[in-house]
Amino acid sequence: MQGSSRIDREFLDAAALCGHLLGEGSVHAFLAEHRRQLFPDDLFGDLFPSGRGRPSVPADVIATVMVLQALEGLSDREACRALQTNIAWKAACGLSLTDEAFHPTVLTLWRAKLRASDRPQRIFDSVRDVVRLSGVIAAKHRRALDSTVLDDAVQRQDTITMLVTQMRRVRKLIPELHGVFVHEENLKGGRPPADYEDRDDIDRLVSELVEDANELVFAAEELDLDEAQADAVALLTLVAGQDVEPTDRPGRWKIAERTAPDRVVSVVDPESRHVHKTSHNYRDGYKA
Asked: What is the DSSP annotation of 150-165?
């Protein structure tokens, strides 16, 4: 059952008592004034077709929290904590100073309902429409854009591991490549056999892996591949060249003493990268 906000203000209404602290033109002041017009109950009626059961958290409160959460980049738990303790958030959501926040799983439930609906982006569509019609950012089209680092729980892999893992994957996806000669001992379970304290032996192993990867790529060029197979071969091509360079000996390769731009750090999650927010802030993930 869908819940509704009270029209009348409570004695300790945050916007009534502290609205002057929000700042003229701030997003909190904007939401405090236009929240009901932005997010009327009937905008979310399809999410609660049954009139039975305990009323939900009012739609305008949930939608306002989601907008603020997106703007500030907070987790569900952090967003509910802000609603509990931040006067600006309480004012924007139409709560009193003494109101408690709802449980973080409520946001999860609402997102699931929105995702399954015909209009999953309705909250942000409403904000966009009101901003456009009200002219609230008229003559303010210049924006200073910044990036944010999105951490990824990526399984970072070294060059040898990526080559071995991706060659195994390519041969699994493309059975025709099993006839191509490779050093089978390097593709068995675990790390390939080598003396990892000996630089020459590491170079020997890297050379074998690069040569085998190239042989598989060359053989795959003669085949009619589907999208998944072609993507796997392309990724193998990339990891076979991004971290290596020729040695002084013909036909031998070594790990390059550099980091390739936009380097793939894992074939398990090939979209992840080494991300630099600043020269001192270095992580694996995505930059947005």
From this structure: EE-------HHHHHHH
pLDDT value of position 125: 86
Spatial CB neighbours of 88, under 8 Å, sequence gap ≥ 6: 21, 22, 26, 28
Residue 263 pLDDT exceeds 70: yes
Q: Rounded distance, CA 206 to CA 238, Å? A: 15
Residue 50 lies in a domain: yes
pLDDT tens column, 232-251: 999 899 888 888 888 888 88
Whole-model pTM: value is 0.46
- Give the single-character DSSP code of 251: T
Q: How far apart are CA 169 and CA 130, in angstroms?
A: 50
Total residue count of the chain as it appears in this document: 288
Output the average pLDDT for the chain.
Answer: 81
Q: How many whole angstroms separate alpha carbon 101 and alpha carbon 154?
A: 33
Q: For residue 202, tell me if it sits in a domain.
A: yes
More confident residue, 248 or 135: 248
Q: Which amino acid is present at 89?
A: W
Q: Are residues 236 and 116 in the same domain?
A: no
Q: What is the rounded distance in angstroms from the CA atom of residue 286 to the CA atom of residue 140?
A: 29
Q: Where are the alpha helices (DSSP H) in 94-149?
A: 105-115, 122-134
**Which pairs with CB-CB distance under 8 Å and at least 24 residues apart come from 126-133?**
126/38, 126/39, 126/43, 126/63, 127/38, 127/67, 130/34, 130/37, 130/38
Give how many domains the chain has, as a whole number: 2
Name the residue range of residue 178's domain: 159-287
> In the structure, what pLDDT confidence band is assigned to residue 185 with cuts at 50, 70 and 90?
very high
CB 72 within 8 A of CB 66: no
